[in-house]
Amino acid sequence: xxxxxxxxxxxxxxxxxxxxxxxxxxxxxxxxxxxxxxxxxxxxxxxxxxxxxxxxxxxxxxxxxxxxxxxxxxxxxxxxxxxxxxxxxxxxxxxxxxxxxxxxxxxxxxxxxxxxxxxxxxxxxxxxxxxxxxxxxxxxxxxxxxxxxxxxxxxxxxxxxxxxxxxxxxxxxxxxxxxxxxxxxxxxxxxxxxxxxxxxxxxxxxxxxxxxxxxxxxxxxxxxxxxxxxxxxxxxxxxxxxxxxxxxxxxxxxxxxxxxxxxxxxxxxxxxxxxxxxxxxxxxxxxxxxxxx
Length: 293
Prior knowledge:
48% of the residues lie in helices and 15% in strands. It is α/β, with parallel strands linked by helices. The chain folds into two domains: 20-167, Rossmann fold, CATH 3.40.50; 170-291, 3-Layer(aba) Sandwich (Rossmann fold). Helix 6 (188-193) links the parallel strand 7 and strand 8. Residues 1-23 have low confidence and may be disordered.
C-alpha cells in the first residue's frame, strides 16, 4: 500500500496542478485604458477578474503602448475597456475584437470644432459609464449578473451622495464667484453640472495660447475679481505662472490651485487610495475654498 501511495503521489500532484492552471486560465482578464476606466471597471467587477490599467501614471492623450507584457495581456483579454472620443484611440489596435467603449449614450459637449472628451469629470455622466460597464460584464459573465448588479447599485449610491454634496456646497448663493479659470479646458462638464463658468487658458485641444489669448485671460480675471487660477495636475505651470507674474506687475494678486482631471494614476496609487471619488472629493474641497464666501 505504501509503495502504491508513493507511486500515486506524483500523479495526484500533476492532476491538482492541472486544476490550478485551468482555474487560473479561466479567470477573466480585463484591460482598461486609463485611470477613470480602471476605477469604474474595478467598482463593478471587484475580485471577479484580473484588471490592468494600461496607461498607469502616464498621460493618456498621446500614449504609445510599448510594454510587451501589457500588450500580451491585452491580446488575451476578455474585454478591453476603452473610453473613446479620441482620448485613447491608440488602444483599439491592441485588441480590436474585444474592444468596448464605456461612453455609449453619453452626450459630449462640443467646444468649437472639437468634442470635449472629459465627460468622466461629471459624476452624472460617469453613472452612465458605470451602467455600460455593468451591462457588458453581464453579457460576458452572465453567471455573476447578480454580483455586478449589486456593485453597480452601490457605486451609483456613493456617486449620488457626492453629487448631492457638490450641489449643496457649491450652491450659487454660497459663492463669491461662479467663474473658474483653468490651465486647460478640461472641466466643462463639472462646470455645467454645478452652474459654474469655465474660462480656459489652453483650449480643449491643448493648443498653446496666443499672446492675445493671454491678454484676454488677464482682463477677464481682473474684470471679474478672480483670485485663483486652477492648474490641471498633469499640466505645466508655464502659462499660469506667466499670467500670475503679469498680473502682479499690475498690482493684482492671483494664486493657483491644482485640480485633478484624474488621468494618470498607477494601479499602486489606486490601491493606496487615489480613486476617482477621492479626486472628485479633493476637487470639491479646493473649489469650496477658492469660490465660496
